[in-house]
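Design request, tokens follow.
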């Protein structure tokens, strides 16, 4: 299967399936618009794949997922230079820095993602080269299985919404959509306040080296602040932290003004900084990478230890090559450190959004419970309406209906009473209270001339409902003292009219607070129901 051609003529999925059916061993090279990808086969199964759109290599993926420490990965990458035939994953597994199961899972995800991206290419060239199998691969995947996954994903994209917001837009409840959108956007806006603002603090005593490294890092889109000694570096770090930046320190160990002394000023600086701010990554560059010094650097909190070019011994012929290699290595270590910052940020962002969603869920649950209790209460009220109407219409028992209403209203008011309104006297008939056991007895003893109480006379003449605090009329206050020990903060009076005459008075109160409008309406509707029954009975007699 040594073929070459255009992807427009033979699609990438067809090439993958053909390699699987013929159990080919080799590499399929794909060239697109300025990009190159490749898929390695072993007996028709995919054992490796690289795509320019899958930017995270296996080492970066392991660091982002928290399975490998950056310092361990950096050391393995350095050792890999002496073991060209060993893959990175093999070295990590051999040194027990990563379990074989975790390594296999990570490699599988990376290969699947790369093959899925490459299978979507529509234009370009391809070439397949046979290569003998070198050794058994840790991961081998069937291309047909990967392509089935792509097909399922394509079908799901057509069936389901792209995100939660699109799903909510399709719902008929626009209020739910806007409310959820506002809450989610609020959570993300709060989380974005913690997004790290990365800045590199370059601590280099040699002004020439500091200027060259600074300029190269700026070319690679790093934000860099250069200082010449540890005192300025510490002040710069403190100032950046106060301004909300996330610094990464790149420092040397020995400084020009200290070279004649034994003390390495950079070590004490990084030790103090690491103790006070362990979250700040510290990269150390030195021209003297002896093993004892490297151990001290890592022990004092250094994340990476890089070999810095020594300007005193480099010639003009090899300077550029050595310096650019140092810049590439430094840039790679900085990328890993920045990814650590963002890994922590995304975790914090997820926690913020999660906490907001949990809070909203609890609030929604409380609201549902409130609405549920309100629904139960309304159902109870409707059931009582039915009971009273059945008692009045079918049984014609007004006295029992009045007693039932008094008992029902006692759950909502502190005192409830029913008075009979005669030509001259207002006489107590029935009373109920959840606060005082002797209230009914006191109500039964009430008998006053309503014509001598201006407030009651006006109420009977106007035939209206009164709600509010008791008036200051002394005669009315004495009337309340007959059946109450404490004047209420709020009360309701409703004169019952039958055939143009007031025949009864309903009373309800709250000692310390005002009743709601809904509670007052319940009382009035029940009283109206009894009054209507009385009118119908009197009209039948007439």
């Amino acid at each position: 299967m040594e073929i070459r051609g255009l992807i427009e003529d033979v699609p990438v999925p067809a090439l993958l399936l053909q390699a699987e059916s013929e159990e080919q061993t080799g590499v399929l090279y794909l060239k697109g618009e300025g990009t190159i990808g490749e898929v390695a086969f072993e007996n028709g199964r995919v054992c490796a794949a690289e795509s320019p759109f899958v930017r995270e290599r296996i080492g970066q993926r392991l660091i982002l997922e928290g399975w490998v420490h950056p310092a361990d990965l950096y050391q393995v990458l350095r050792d890999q230079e002496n073991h060209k035939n060993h893959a990175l994953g093999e070295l990590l597994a051999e040194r027990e820095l990563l379990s074989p199961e975790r390594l296999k899972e990570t490699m599988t995800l990376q290969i699947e993602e790369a093959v899925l991206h490459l299978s979507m290419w529509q234009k370009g060239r391809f070439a397949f080269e046979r290569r003998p199998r070198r050794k058994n691969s840790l991961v081998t995947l069937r291309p047909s299985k990967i392509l089935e996954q792509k097909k399922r994903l394509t079908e799901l994209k057509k069936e389901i919404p792209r995100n939660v917001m699109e799903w909510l837009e399709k719902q008929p409840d626009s209020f739910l959509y806007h409310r959820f959108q506002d809450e989610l956007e609020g959570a993300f806006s709060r989380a974005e306040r913690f997004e790290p603002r990365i800045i590199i603090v370059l601590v280099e005593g040699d002004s020439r080296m500091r200027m060259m490294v600074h300029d190269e890092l700026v070319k690679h889109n790093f934000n860099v602040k250069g200082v010449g000694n540890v005192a300025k570096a510490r002040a710069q770090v403190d100032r950046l932290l106060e301004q909300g930046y996330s610094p990464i320190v790149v420092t040397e160990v020995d400084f020009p003004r200290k070279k004649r002394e034994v003390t390495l000023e950079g070590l004490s600086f990084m030790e103090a900084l690491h103790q006070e701010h362990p979250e700040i990554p510290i990269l150390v560059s030195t021209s003297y990478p002896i093993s004892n010094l490297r151990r001290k650097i890592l022990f004092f909190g250094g994340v990476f230890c890089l070999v810095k070019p020594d300007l005193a011994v480099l010639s003009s012929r090899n300077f550029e090559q050595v310096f650019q290699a140092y810049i590439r290595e430094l840039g790679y270590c900085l990328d890993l450190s920045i990814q650590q910052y963002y890994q922590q940020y995304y975790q914090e962002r997820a926690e913020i959004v999660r906490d907001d969603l949990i809070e909203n869920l609890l609030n929604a649950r409380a609201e549902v419970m409130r609405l549920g209790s309100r629904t139960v209460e309304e159902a109870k009220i409707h059931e009582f309406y039915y009971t009273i109407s059945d008692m009045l219409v079918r049984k014609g028992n007004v006295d029992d209906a009045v007693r039932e209403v008094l008992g029902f209203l006692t759950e909502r008011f502190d005192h409830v009473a029913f008075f009979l309104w005669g030509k001259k006297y207002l006489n107590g008939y029935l009373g109920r209270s959840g606060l005082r056991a002797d209230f009914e007895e006191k109500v039964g003893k009430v008998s006053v001339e309503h014509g001598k109480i201006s407030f009651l006379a006006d109420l009977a003449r106007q035939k209206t409902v009164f709600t509010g605090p008791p008036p200051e009329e002394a005669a009315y206050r004495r009337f309340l003292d007959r059946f109450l020990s404490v004047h209420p903060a709020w009360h309701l009076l409703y004169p019952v009219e039958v055939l143009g005459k007031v025949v009864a008075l309903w009373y309800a109160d709250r000692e310390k607070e005002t009743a709601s409008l809904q509670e007052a309406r319940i009382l009035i509707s029940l009283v109206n129901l009894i009054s209507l029954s009385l009118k119908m009975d009197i009209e039948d007699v007439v």
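Comment from the thread starter after seeing the answer: thanks! Residues 54 and 114 are 6 Å apart (CA to CA).
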